[in-house]
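Readers of this paper often ask what the protein records in our data store actually look like. This encoding replaces a full spatial description with a residue-level series of whole-number codes. For reference, a complete record is included directly beneath this paragraph.
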Amino acid sequence: MSQISIVDLEVFYHVGVPDAERAQPQRLLLTVTMEADFAAAAGSDGIADTVDYFAVTRRLLKLGEGREWRLIEKLATDIADTVLVEFNPLAVTVEVKKFIIPQARHISVQITKNRAAA
């Protein structure tokens, strides 16, 4: 299987357990790795035969509009489900990095889901 990765996409979503933390959007970094079979794309050289990472990026940049999450675990799951349903990779791994603890570089969660589980 082959992979396409979007690494450290900067987004601003309302996320956090306390209401005050969710009041303003927070900077998060998303890494989304999508597994797909690239044989058709390699043969055709056509975007229709692969996962359109530009379209995935645009979707993720808008995903937080009008939404909020308490936990980054739920956010990572929602991102994985969205990518699986809308862009149809065989599997997706999502890492969400949050910068809420000053003494740590970041806090992150990671989830992998397969198409059949979406």
